[in-house]
């Protein structure tokens, strides 16, 4: 079986991207949309994987560490958890394709508490392309897990965003220098 690649579109939801999202990154995240959609189309056309690891929470969960850190966000069955902008209809159009799926995640890393690693290994995926938000939180933690699990990591700089420019610079530098990730324009 030939090696496959996967595009992970991390947390690109209304709560993180829309102007009125509860934990929005705003314009920097919105600016990623064309690149994310172009990559999603390219991966789908090439019969590669497009995976949408998407944060999900329960309001006031006393056992989840984020409850104390952030306002309520990405709650199941809410507008805030819906995919942002044109990604929502793109996913609806492609969701029946065997290599496209949305998955719940409850921690920063797309790997923690999920079957993502198992599913990728079953499909002989060796390289992960990371896009989405936030570069310095969920994208970074996913990259760290991927590194520790032996995946090749590619981060698409025009398709990731952080809350601040300093956080963006740090995260991209850290992924490149400490994880050996390839950062591409």
Give structural notes:
The chain has helices at 14-17, 27-30, 33-45, 66-69, 87-94, 116-122, 135-148, 165-179, and strands spanning 4-10, 49-55, 100-105, 125-133, 152-161, 182-184. With 185 residues, it is of the alpha/beta class. The protein has a 6-stranded parallel β-sheet with strand order 3-2-1-4-5-6, with helices on both faces. α8 (165-179) links the parallel β5 and β6 (182-184). It is globular and about 45 Å long. The mean pLDDT is 95.
Total of DSSP H or I helical runs spanning 4+ residues: 8
Q: How much strand content do the residues show?
A: 15-25%
Q: What is the 3D form?
A: globular
- The level of helicity is 25-40%
Cα-atom radius of gyration: 15 Å
Order of helices and strands: EHHHEHHEHEHEHE
First-to-last CA distance: 30 Å
> How many E-type strands?
6
Low-confidence stretches: none
State the secondary-structure class: alpha/beta
Mean pLDDT, all residues = 95
Strand order of the largest sheet: 3-2-1-4-5-6
As an assembly, this protein is single chain
The biggest sheet, with number of strands, parallel, antiparallel or mixed sense and barrel status, is:
6 strands, parallel
């Amino acid at each position: 079986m030939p090696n496959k690649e996967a595009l992970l579109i991390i947390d690109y939801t209304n709560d993180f991207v829309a102007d009125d999202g509860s934990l929005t990154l705003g314009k920097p995240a919105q600016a990623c949309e064309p690149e994310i959609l172009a990559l999603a189309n390219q991966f789908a056309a090439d019969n590669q994987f497009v995976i949408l690891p998407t944060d999900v929470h329960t309001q006031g969960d006393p056992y989840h560490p984020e409850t104390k850190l952030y306002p309520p966000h990405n709650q199941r069955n809410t507008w805030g958890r819906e995919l942002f902008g044109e990604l929502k209809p793109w996913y609806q159009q492609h969701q029946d394709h065997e290599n496209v799926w949305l998955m719940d995640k409850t921690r920063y890393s797309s790997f923690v508490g999920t079957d993502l690693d198992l599913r990728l290994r079953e499909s002989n995926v060796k390289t992960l392309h990371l896009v989405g938000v936030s570069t310095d939180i969920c994208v970074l933690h996913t990259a760290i897990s991927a590194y520790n699990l032996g995946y090749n990591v590619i981060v698409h700089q025009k398709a990731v965003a952080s809350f601040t420019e300093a956080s963006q610079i740090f995260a991209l530098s850290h992924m490149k220098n400490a994880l050996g990730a390839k950062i591409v324009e």
